[in-house]
Design a protein that fits this description.
about 140 residues, about 80% helix, about 0% strand
Length: about 140
C-alpha cells in the first residue's frame, strides 16, 4: 500500500512525466505563457490542468445546481399560483354579491342587459381590464 501524503506534501512533491503534444498545442502553450507572463512551461501546464479540472467539476455542479434552481422556481411559481387562485376566488365572490345586489334593485329587460354585456366586453378589451370607478360613473351620468 502506498504512502498517504498531506496536502502540503502534494503541493510540493513533483513527479516527472513524459508527454507528447502536437505542434499546435505547443504553440498554444507558448502563446499562453507569453500572455500570462510565465517563463516556465511546466508552471503553465500545471495551471492549465488546474483550470480545466475546475471547469469539468463546475460542469457537474452546474447540472446539479440547475436542478435545484428549477425545483426552487417551480415551488415558488406553484405557491404564487395557489395564492392567486385564492385571491381570484375571493374577488369572484365579491363580484357575484355586487351583481346580485344590483340585479335586485334594477329592473332591466333582456335586451338592455345584452347591450350592457357587449359594451362591458368591448370596454374591458379596450382598457386591458383596468377598470376605474370614476370612468364608469362618468359614463352612467352621460359625460
Amino acid at each position: 500500500m502506498g504512502r498517504k501524503y498531506t496536502e502540503i506534501e502534494l503541493e510540493q512533491k513533483r513527479t516527472k512525466v513524459t508527454i507528447r503534444l502536437t505542434e499546435r498545442s505547443m504553440l498554444k502553450c507558448t502563446e499562453g505563457m507569453v500572455l500570462s507572463g510565465m517563463t516556465v512551461r511546466n508552471d503553465f501546464i500545471e495551471r492549465a490542468i488546474e483550470f480545466y479540472s475546475g471547469y469539468l467539476a463546475a460542469q457537474s455542479h452546474t447540472a446539479f445546481l440547475s436542478d435545484v434552481i428549477l425545483e426552487a422556481i417551480d415551488g415558488s411559481i406553484s405557491s404564487t399560483e395557489r395564492r392567486l387562485a385564492k385571491l381570484l376566488f375571493k374577488i369572484a365572490v365579491e363580484m357575484a354579491k355586487l351583481e346580485q345586489m344590483l340585479a335586485s334593485i334594477n329592473e332591466m329587460d333582456d335586451e338592455t342587459l345584452q347591450k350592457l354585456h357587449i359594451r362591458c366586453v368591448n370596454e374591458v378589451k379596450k382598457i386591458n381590464g383596468i377598470i376605474r370607478m370614476e370612468d364608469a360613473v362618468k359614463y352612467q351620468r352621460g359625460e
